[in-house]
Amino acid sequence: MTISYNRLWKLLIDKKMKKKELCQLADVSHMVLVRMAHGESITTDSILKICVALGCRIEDIMEIVEDDSAE
User: pTM of this prediction?
Assistant: First the structure.
């Protein structure tokens, strides 16, 4: 199982917000978004900052998905 942040990228598109704007608004580093783009884990503090900045819940920006290799 892995974490997918595809919901975050879709939310940013819906809000017409750039990743750089999110970094500034949420006060997180660009590397946090780079890690998310690669499906890597980030701290819960970063997740909280992003959710507060976007006014959303955790499940609005991430989800757990099955690995293709699990089949």
Answer: 0.88
38: which 2 tokens?
A: 């690669």
Q: Which helix (H) or strand (E) holds 63?
A: strand 63-65
50 contact partners, CB below 8 Å, separation of at least 6: 8, 22, 26, 28, 61
First-to-final CA distance of the chain: 11
Matching residue, tokens 């580093």: 29
Percentage of the chain surpassing pLDDT 90?
87
* Architecture of the CATH domain 2-70: Orthogonal Bundle (1.10)
